Amino acid sequence: MTNVVILEHGRHERNYWSDIWRYRELFYVLAWRDVAVRYKQTIIGASWALIRPFLTMVVFTVVFSRIAKLPSDGVTPYPLMVFVGTLPWTFFSTGLTDASNSLIGNSNLISKVYFPRLIVPIAAVVVAFADFLIAFAILIGMFFWYHFMPTWHVVFFPVFVLAAIAACIGPSLWITALNVKYRDFRIIVPFIVQLGLYISPVGFSSSIVPPQWRLLYSLNPIVGVIDGFRWCLLGNDSQLYLPGVALSFAVIIFFMWLGVRQFRTTEKSFADLI
Question: What is the mean pLDDT of residues 92-110?
């Protein structure tokens, strides 16, 4: 009996999102491989996911609290305030950097096999989120150290975690698609990440921003995410600027739309350009 293969025009386009589910095992393989490669041949392994945000907290606490004498949120210990801001930023910067180079790093796979290319950068973001979960253990330890207990605001924490994931995925897809054609982005992305670290409220509270600039400052989508993290985990000591959070969420949604649109528009040419 002869098997007949029917090539139907436009099938991949119509079934694209269902294909992502069908190729979920490939997604798991890519994510697990990236986790294994990240800490391969390192002495302390996954402990780097703990050390990086911890050292960032120490440096920023010394610079902004001891030297610059900037205030904390209420009576919250400054190191605790900084670390809560460091968590989403580290996830965002790691996910953006890794995802932007993910297609280039998997060029052999992309040029030979069909699968929804969206799987590749999303897998890179998931790996960064795994680091985020590991680093969260330090925060739990700091809560015990400072005898600090989150308030009822913590019930909204999953909302801001999802916002952090969306804030990472949107720009990552956009830059990933551009990086395939314009390799300059391999140089531009680290610069953007470095700049963003200092203009985002990681080492300081966004409450020190003058009121007339607060809404404009929230055009940086990570501002609303960090403020949300602090409001959820630090309680009433951290005030939530609702217009700013709403604007940050709107920017996140815009970049999600832009990222998916740019990625899907250029996806067909990836195999030829890589």
Answer: 89
